[in-house]
């Protein structure tokens, strides 16, 4: 660490969380954390995010036979490869938030505790996306939700080209069942296409299944208003009992 540096860098904090530092450097950083409340808070947030992945997200990725083969299922092996290539920031795994963000992106919910979170896989990096974040074609995304006790879910989107999609159940005709306990990682990953502009996701939670035809019509109505309407629409006008929404931007390839 540079002695003149006021705070630890995100890479240094990630390395500390991964236990990938020699003892002298670890002791020097620990001493800094003992006197710097800002860095200590950031370190605790990194540790909490890592623990959340370990308890709630990674087990679903490894156990789900429908999960498409990808490096996501090899996070454990990546830990062993971080030490010799630690200077490559991308291999700080899921502990590095986009654009060096210090605070974890909040769960996005409208009411009642239902939430939607988006995780992105690109090359060998995995992270939790922030609201409005630009993503690239061919990025793989996966969803984690909390249902707030509601037993049915449909995850849908409308993109910048006005195209509606049903992501869960994939191309389904109605809502699918969802666990009503803690956060659940949904099956399958989605590979983003090259359509530029905003894409708005909606997680629709309900006591009874919603029909895809009704939901598609509502998505198309928003899409007809163009990118501005997609960015501004945080709620879909359908009879869901609870909703959560998430916006990301797709960069031009």
Question: Descriptors for this entry?
Answer:
253 residues, alpha+beta, Immunoglobulin-like, 2 domains, six-stranded mixed beta sheet, five-stranded antiparallel beta sheet, 6 helices, 11 strands, elongated
Give a structural overview.
The protein is α+β, with helices and mostly antiparallel strands and 253 residues long. It has two domains: 10-96, no CATH class; 115-250, Immunoglobulin-like (Sandwich). Helices cover 30% and strands 23% of the residues. It has six helices and eleven strands. The protein has helices at residues 10-17, 23-35, 37-63, 75-82, 212-223, 226-232, and strands spanning 115-122, 125-128, 134-135, 140-146, 152-159, 164-168, 176-177, 184-185, 190-191, 197-206, 242-250. Strands 3, 5, 6, 7, 10 and 11 form a six-stranded mixed beta sheet that branches. Helix 1 (10-17) packs across helix 3 and helix 2 packs across helix 3 (37-63). The longest helix has 27 residues, at 37-63. The protein is elongated, with a radius of gyration of 20 Å. 32% of the residues are buried. The model is unreliable at 57-112 (pLDDT under 50).
